[in-house]
Amino acid sequence: MLCAAVVAVAGCGGDGGDESGSPPPDYAKLLDGSPPPLAGLHRQGDQLLGGGRPAFEERLEQLNGFPAVVNVWASWCGPCRAEFPHFQKVGSELGRKVAFIGVDSDDDRDSAMTFLDSNPVPYPSYSDPDKEIATALGATLGFPATAFFDSEGNQTHIRHGPYATSAELEADVRRFAIDGESG
Question: What is the pTM of this model?
């Protein structure tokens, strides 16, 4: 059973990268003092984890008590790449009270790792080459998509399509993850 907040991605194509050209935030400094379950995510920042859907769902269960956001993305997805700076920013600003997790779906490991090396985020991503995790989250209309979970592990919302601004992403995190509204 899925139980933390999730962010997923829809509408991909092309290449991209950090379109803003600015360096990522100093995650260690910004996330210092995070509660242990969230600090565990931060220690795994930029890692591509295996284990498939069972490992992903187990991680969400370990994060019970914290709202969560899961970003479903792929390195070949232009809109996914374009929104990554928003996840860098919001993940570093809210990462001491909200769990962020990535899901690299329908992608190959080498391309995903190359992308993460040049676009670091303060949380790990789970490898999902067969789209099993993405399907379980309801990210079936393509990438990117964003799924949100309240602190009790209930999925409250899934958004299909990229975030154009950090403010737009932050508003949804607050509404659907922190406040737990259904949408």
Answer: 0.86
